[in-house]
Amino acid sequence: MTGFGKGEAVFRNKKITVEIRSLNSKQLDLSLRLPSAYRQSEYEIRNLVSRALQRGKVDLFVSVETQAVETSAHINREAFAAYAGELREAAKAAGLETDTKEWDAAALAALLRLPDVVTTETEAIGEEEHAALLAAVESAAAHLDAFRQQEGATLIADLLRRVDLIEQYKAQVEPFEKARTENIRARILDNLSKLPVEVDSNRLEQEMIFYLEKLDITEEKVRLTNHCRYFREVAAGEEGAGRKLGFIAQEMGREINTLGSKSNESNMQILVVKMKDELEKIKEQVLNIL
């Protein structure tokens, strides 16, 4: 879900630039940084980005460049003139000198701080500028989505390669599994032969079969094979498969853990550790997929 997208739109003498950055997240966490004039469009921007990106920690930045000199601050000339006249009359009545440069500078500073002399207007943007803004947002989201798809194809290929490795390690378990059964049987018989007691061979054989059945890993291998096959099917044929692949990886982990607890053989345990290592990498990478 990581990525970057940039979109631009030109409206009259303004250039609107939208940049979107995305990181991994289970939900959509959208943060906007907009010029004050564009706050009225925040709801539409959020809806557009939510539909396009679905999940991720998303930061959206909007900047505006203009070739003309514009300011939202305006001087009320009528109020300024009225205040200036009253101030000068009041100063003369108090016997102050009002025909000096020092007076003019001090009076100007005082006048600009008086109520209603300097006003700030926030102009609402028109429909055409609003449409240009949304077009830039849509373009940035599309570029981010294209980036994600390219990264997703690479991630899927890596995940499938690791699933193949897990199945290869599972296949390598089988020779050790057969030898392990014979070794366990031989070890039990050897230990019993050292005991000064008589053993019922029929009862011993029953208990031996019961014990070895507990160590059998056939079911775990079959279920792990099915999970690996389903993982490939979901990765190849479903959109928004990230969550489902994560669930399948959890099921694969359960079978691998059970296989490890039943292995009771060093070579098998080494292969189980290798499978767990690949599975952990799969779990980490699945978080990057929607």
What are the SSEs and their pairings?
Blueprint: E1 3-11, E2 14-23, E3 28-33, H1 42-53, E4 56-66, E5 73-75, H2 77-93, H3 101-112, E6 118-120, H4 127-193, H5 201-214, H6 218-237, H7 242-263, H8 266-286
Parallel strand pairs: 3-4
Antiparallel strand pairs: 1-2, 2-4, 5-6
Helix pairs in contact: 1-4, 2-3, 4-6, 4-8, 6-7, 7-8
Structure description:
The protein is of the alpha+beta class and 290 residues long. The protein contains 8 helices and 6 strands. The strands form 2 sheets. Strands 1-2-4-3 form a 4-stranded mixed sheet. Strands 5-6 form a two-stranded antiparallel ribbon. Strand 3 (28-33), helix 1 and strand 4 (56-66) form a beta-alpha-beta unit. The protein starts with a strand and ends with a helix. The mean pLDDT is 83.
Question: What key phrases describe this protein's structure?
Answer:
four-stranded mixed sheet, about 290 residues, alpha+beta
Portion in strands: 5-15%
- The topology string of helices and strands comes to EEEHEEHHEHHHHH
Average pLDDT, to the nearest integer? 83
Distance between the termini: 6 Å
**Helix percentage:** 55-70%
Report the uncertain regions.
none
**Strands in their spatial order, largest beta sheet:** 1-2-4-3
Gross geometry: elongated
The assigned structural class equals alpha+beta
Q: If helices are DSSP runs of H or I spanning 4 or more residues, what is the number of helices?
A: 8
User: What is the number of beta strands?
Assistant: 6
- Rg over CA atoms: 37 Å
Largest sheet: 4 strands, mixed
